[in-house]
Amino acid sequence: MENVDYDLVIIGGGPAGLTAGLYASRARLNVLLIERVAPGGQVLITDHIENYPGFPEGLSGPELTDKLVAQARQFGLPIESEEVESLTLEGPVKIIKTSGREIRTHAIIIASGASPRTLHVGEERFQGKGLSYCATCDGPFYRNKTVVAVGGGDTAVQESIFLTKFASKVYLVHRRDQLRATKILQERALANDKIEFVWDSVVTGLDGFFGLESVKVKNLKTQEERTLTAEGCFIWIGIVPNAGFVGDSLEKDPWGFIITDAHMATSVPGVFAAGDVRNTPLRQIATAVGDAAIAAYSAEHYIENLKS
Amino acid sequence: MENVDYDLVIIGGGPAGLTAGLYASRARLNVLLIERVAPGGQVLITDHIENYPGFPEGLSGPELTDKLVAQARQFGLPIESEEVESLTLEGPVKIIKTSGREIRTHAIIIASGASPRTLHVGEERFQGKGLSYCATCDGPFYRNKTVVAVGGGDTAVQESIFLTKFASKVYLVHRRDQLRATKILQERALANDKIEFVWDSVVTGLDGFFGLESVKVKNLKTQEERTLTAEGCFIWIGIVPNAGFVGDSLEKDPWGFIITDAHMATSVPGVFAAGDVRNTPLRQIATAVGDAAIAAYSAEHYIENLKS
Q1: A47: exposed, middle or buried (C-beta count within 10 Å: 0-12, 13-18, 19+)?
Q2: From CA A40, how far away is CA A44, in angstroms rounded?
Q3: Which chain B residues touch A51 with a CB distance below 8 Å?
Q4: Can you name the CATH fold of A118-235?
Q5: CATH classification of B6-115+239-307, choosing from 3.90.980.10, 3.30.390.30, 3.30.450.40, 3.50.50.60?
Q6: Nearest to A51 among B26, B70, B188 (CB)
Q7: Tens-binned pLDDT, residue by residue, of chain A (308 aa)
Q8: Surface of A (137-176) touching B: CB under 8 A
Q9: Are residues B266 and B241 in contact, defined by beta-carbon separation less than 8 angstroms?
């Protein structure tokens, strides 16, 4: 059997990566988790999580991350800060090239997550203070309030309809004069009298003292500027997988998400994916931990088979 | 649109059912959860859970159940104690017949779980005190201890090998003189010097004062009885889905588990399944909550489409 540094390397330290690490280290695999910045992933920017099962009072993203790290470390999971540059996946030993070294491993779990596309109008300032990328997560916080939604695709339209269950009014800002979303969603949105469409427009600024108070939009045809008073702003102009380092070595869907089967196996034996980076129907902490438990279990059996 | 009692009925109150209920009530669906006994499911018999992500100190099954119930109730989920007798799934309105009434609903999430086959030697007494059905869950509690494993199929053999990572010795008790497991697993188990095979034998009793101390086995060929000193006993003589009430109305795998796709959709539109009752590669709390979030999301979109 060929010489390796690890049985398993997990790439990414969000809920998926940390859960895979918990399961793998509990199964006593020789495992390493690498994360490019700090453990947590997108969860770190989440102010209040109320739909991760087990926490009736809710908790913050950093709080959940601390718990996940403590739990995985308890079983001996080593976590290192390293950025992956590329993968070499041909042959039984996989090679992970990071900024500082090359790591040889039998198996890999990719749990590097995804990032929402941003508006580039300084929205970082309102992260957790009115700015959101997830109606399922944050919609209920806007009961009887006015919100702005941005986008024109299926997600934007569907989630704007969902928001009307809570919000008293939803401004839907779209850069064109018609929606890209499927017909049925369009019809529903157009018939919904809580939704006011702001056509041909882009968001040019966000304002507020403690939290978000208003959103500036500009009509691209008339160049006219307008200020919408709103306590929430939901951005749905797309989400991008953090999978640049994967290149063409694994099969991806048309949006670049890694394709897996029910065992979280990718198109290359020994390489698994879990959480937001894969082609999942729903991106939630609950689904990330479910994926990760399966990916670790599959990796464990893959490694066990190699060794026999 | 036809008249119904609910948009969605969730059958089962374990982690999958309660998570589906949390998501569905948070999405403001008109939803009901029904559970035949008390919320919790198999988790209730779990003494200490250390691999559900988010609880570094671990927690008991009843503790986790209380948290899941409180969280779902906070969003208004009604939970009723009713046993399902049968389902009528033809047509757009599904009918659930319980002991007391008929419930009409647009959609159903089946989260009724699974039960381990039992030995019928009074093992209830040692539930959480040495008796286990899950090596992934409980194996690490038996570091440097002696355990008994029961069964001869893939699960029994694979999990016995897994147990040798922790236990100093594993007696593998099987009623025949050879294993049913696949060849490669057999070879591995037979080569593992921590595993001692107890052939042609069945467990006839469990003993211990506070916790399990010994396991009585009887050789079926010689009728000889023997007492094995052990602090743990793992039973792997099969697991059965709690899906009798489903009958032939949904596609099942050869073992009776409900077949779903990646969206947790079953073979009947509007009927979804989540957790241990479905044909999943891994049965864990983490995977149950992941399934359930997806099932609720899928049900929500199914209902939304019906109403448009």
Answers
A1: middle
A2: 5
A3: 22-23, 26, 293
A4: FAD/NAD(P)-binding domain (3.50.50)
A5: 3.50.50.60
A6: B26
A7: 678 999 999 999 999 999 999 999 988 899 999 999 888 777 776 667 889 999 999 998 899 999 999 999 999 999 999 999 999 999 889 999 998 899 999 999 999 999 988 888 988 899 889 999 888 889 999 999 999 999 998 889 988 999 999 999 999 999 999 888 777 778 889 999 999 999 999 999 999 999 999 999 999 999 999 999 999 999 999 889 999 999 999 999 999 999 999 999 999 999 999 999 999 999 999 999 999 999 999 999 999 888 76
A8: 140, 158, 161-162, 165-166
A9: no
